[in-house]
Q: What sequence folds into this?
């Protein structure tokens, strides 16, 4: 529920069903679009672009996790498996069969979806902790066993599939550098958000939310819960597959260690911090989880440059060297702090700020 | 609506046991189209279990449920909902995180036709369908149940009486032929009880709805006032069935509620 600013009246249901209900919001969204597609790539340096790509990839990957956990209430800890299926399907189709990238990407999505349904089948019978175990099984069976042992052997290329430059192109548009990847990412993020928001406000999304909140009541209201759970797994796997196929563009070589178990956990952390059951949650969570470690790295780097600080804290150069551990520690700390102090995530805070300004100067 | 002679819901010889506990022992009854049929009985008599069996949440070990002449004993709950059986719950089973409007919209689920692709684009057909159903909900249900002022509120934050009303609204949104009401009056104050009783009469009698109601309730005053027929259960067995005055006078019912005269004497000593 959100409040509209004073003085906004609707005469038709169409207006009440619209996403952006006032001219101000329209203006804001148009500015956001211009910022993403024109201003940011024009003025940001290569470093910022590459960080933005990681943010975008996290958004794309976490969207499926948000759908499963936040919308349908089916906890998944194996989402990297579906990313991997998408990435490998896409790469294999491109390298072995020379299928154009967009078609290979869609195939990657479909294979990711079907793979996800396969591991979602137990959800018809089990809930909660037991479902976590089956989705973890998806992670280990797919990435550690199926892909490492069998899929990687296809074509005799060794463990990693290297992608020759110029393989990835959409029509005449060849994706060569980070800037191209950025544009592709921005388009995909907009499409994903659009689809997700539309699903959330129509029949299917409501059925998912009903299953999340109360599956018995949902069933007596005529929702075929097994079908809708599997549909949620399919759509989440499809999103995952497309995200994996997208990430192929910025990788020089596809290998199993890009899709490790830590990444699955990371995605769950993203939506916990951003806010469960909310599209804003995915975006805020991804921004937070990518920018905080980058900022931390920058901070430590600045400190290391100054001999004074290094004298006080002689472990600083080591921290920079082993930054991965700092990142993991920051991840754990962030999740703990969020669960204690802001269990509804960043999106809830955003909602409160927005309502404060919509209602201003009154508090009700 | 006048009560017809057409049998709409027929329950034959239902046996239901949980482990060693016999919850229902061969209960049979018929509900005629257009009537308010009440099921009464002391706590633990098996009333809710009976509703769950009709609704498909429990599968009875023995017995048959038929709806409009068709056997529906093998159907899943969501299929029975598609046949036109809707229900409310004794303990509220709402979707607490969603708004009132979204809760009621979920009740329209079986009447919506858009598929995955159409839903994800939300274009043309889906948008039109959403508006049509919104119109139906606003005109027919929200207006009838007088919940205009809370339609955009999150359900979990509403007071109990209103939540009960929202649950009835959600059950009505299915456009059901039979509505199973499991203690719709429990925990309400006098004013809310009167409102709720009036809503039940409305959905039973109004030209637009004419819904058959199966009511499980402990408030004897309301039950005896509004029901056409009453059935009494005790320890899983049917002990009486008939019009309200008949059931009130039935010695078995008096015994079930008040105990034997000697017992009464003993316990009051």
A:
């Amino acid at each position: 529920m959100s409040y509209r600013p004073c003085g906004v009246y609707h005469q038709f249901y169409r207006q009440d069903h619209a996403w952006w209900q006032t001219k101000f919001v329209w203006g804001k969204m148009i500015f956001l679009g211009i910022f993403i597609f024109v201003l940011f790539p024009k003025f940001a340096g290569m470093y910022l672009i590459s960080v933005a790509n990681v943010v975008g990839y996290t958004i794309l990957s976490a969207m499926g996790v948000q759908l499963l956990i936040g919308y349908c209430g089916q906890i998944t800890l194996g989402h990297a498996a579906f990313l991997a299926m998408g990435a490998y399907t896409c790469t294999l189709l491109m390298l072995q069969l020379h299928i154009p990238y967009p078609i290979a990407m869609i195939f990657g999505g479909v294979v990711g979806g079907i793979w996800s349904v396969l591991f979602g089948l137990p959800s018809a019978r089990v809930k909660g902790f037991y479902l976590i175990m089956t989705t973890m099984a998806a992670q280990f069976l797919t990435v550690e066993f199926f892909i490492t042992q069998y899929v990687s052997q296809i074509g005799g290329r060794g463990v990693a599939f290297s992608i020759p430059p110029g393989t990835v192109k959409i029509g005449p548009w060849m994706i060569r550098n980070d800037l191209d990847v950025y544009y592709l990412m921005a388009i995909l993020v907009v499409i994903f958000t659009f689809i997700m928001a539309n699903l959330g406000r129509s029949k299917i999304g409501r059925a998912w939310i009903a299953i999340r909140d109360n599956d018995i009541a949902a069933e007596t209201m005529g929702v075929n819960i097994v079908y809708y759970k599997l549909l949620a797994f399919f759509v989440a796997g499809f999103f995952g597959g497309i995200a994996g196929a997208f990430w192929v563009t910025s990788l020089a070589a596809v290998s199993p260690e890009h899709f490790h178990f830590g990444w699955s956990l990371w995605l769950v952390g993203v939506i916990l911090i951003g806010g469960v059951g909310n599209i804003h949650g995915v975006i805020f969570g991804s921004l937070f989880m990518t920018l905080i470690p980058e900022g931390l790295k920058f901070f430590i780097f600045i400190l290391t440059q100054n001999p004074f600080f290094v004298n006080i804290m002689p472990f600083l150069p080591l921290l920079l060297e082993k930054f991965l551990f700092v990142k993991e520690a920051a991840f754990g700390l962030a999740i703990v702090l969020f669960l204690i102090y802001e269990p509804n995530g960043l999106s809830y805070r955003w909602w409160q700020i927005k309502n404060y300004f919509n209602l201003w100067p009154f508090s009700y | 609506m006048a009560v017809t002679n057409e049998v709409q819901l027929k329950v034959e010889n239902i046996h239901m046991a949980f482990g060693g506990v016999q919850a229902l022992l061969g209960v049979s009854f018929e509900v005629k189209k257009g009537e308010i049929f009440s099921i009464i009985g002391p706590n633990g008599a098996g009333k809710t279990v009976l509703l769950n069996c009709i609704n498909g949440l429990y599968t009875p070990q023995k017995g048959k449920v038929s709806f409009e002449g068709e056997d529906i004993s093998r159907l899943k709950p969501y299929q029975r909902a598609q046949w036109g059986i809707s229900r409310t719950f004794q303990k509220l089973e709402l979707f607490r995180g969603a708004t009132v409007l979204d809760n009621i919209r979920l009740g329209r689920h079986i009447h919506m036709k858009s598929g995955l692709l159409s839903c994800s684009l939300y274009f043309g057909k889906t948008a039109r369908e959403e508006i049509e159903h919104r119109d139906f909900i606003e005109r027919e249900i929200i207006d009838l149940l007088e919940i205009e002022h809370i339609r955009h509120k999150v359900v979990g934050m509403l007071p109990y009486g209103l939540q009960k009303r929202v649950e009835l609204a959600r059950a009505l949104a299915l456009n059901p032929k039979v509505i199973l009401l499991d203690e719709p009056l429990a925990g309400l104050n006098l004013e809310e009880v009167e409102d709720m009783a009036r809503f039940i009469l409305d959905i039973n009698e109004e030209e637009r709805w004419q819904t058959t109601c199966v009511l499980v309730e402990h408030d004897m005053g309301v039950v005896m006032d509004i029901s056409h027929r009453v059935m009494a259960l005790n320890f899983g067995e049917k002990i009486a069935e008939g019009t309200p005055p008949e059931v009130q006078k039935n010695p078995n019912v008096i015994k079930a509620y008040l105990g034997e005269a000697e017992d009464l004497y003993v316990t009051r000593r």
Remarks:
- The CA atoms of residues 81 and 116 of chain B lie 21 Å apart.
- Chain B has a mean pLDDT of 89.
- DSSP finds eleven helices and ten strands in chain B.
